[in-house]
Structures are given as C-alpha cells and as structure tokens.
Design brief:
By secondary structure, the protein is mostly beta strands. The protein contains no helices and twelve strands.
Amino acid sequence: MREIRFRAISNGKVYECQACNFGAMNALVEVEGFTGPQWCRVERFIQYIGHKDVNGKEIYEGDRVNASWYGPDGLIIEEGVVYWEDEHAGFYIEFNVEHAEPMSFPDMLEVIEKE
C-alpha cells in the first residue's frame, strides 16, 4: 500500500506535515523557535507520490526531476516537473519540450530541486 504524506507551503517555506486540515488550509508542523508542533496557515499542500528517486530521495509533486532512459541513439536525459493530473488520476512529469509522461519508471528519476 502506498504511503500518503503531505508537505505544506507557508510563507514561502516548506514543512513536513504531522496533520492536515484541508478544508481550513491548516497544517500541524514543527516551526523553528517553538517547542512542539504548531498549527499554521497553508498556501498549498504538496503530496508524496509514493516513490523514491535513484538516490533514495522521496519524490513530491512539484519536484524538478531528471528522467533518464535509453533511446535509439543512446542515453536520453530530460528535465521535468512532477504534477498530479486529475483527468487520468495519476502523477505525471511535464517536460520542457511540451509533452508529459505518466510516472511509469520512478527508478529512472533523480530529484534535482525540491518544491
């Protein structure tokens, strides 16, 4: 079974969520300078997609990744961004060359920048 976890973006910072209130857009997070978790207002939630990259880093929607595979002319590496596609109910990678691919081979991905 896939593990479901979220991160919260609040005031430009990314926090690991301990609990989420999606209706009120609040999250229980560890905030520097406070003892114990605090509820904070959230601009956006980002979801863990349930996979790790080639280096063992967890992949979240919004992460920039390098996807690599072998084509007829050798190794191909493309940079893209992970996103959720409502129409097909799945995570996809949007590449810079104006096409998208389903998240079929997470073992061929490397996270290069976290959301």
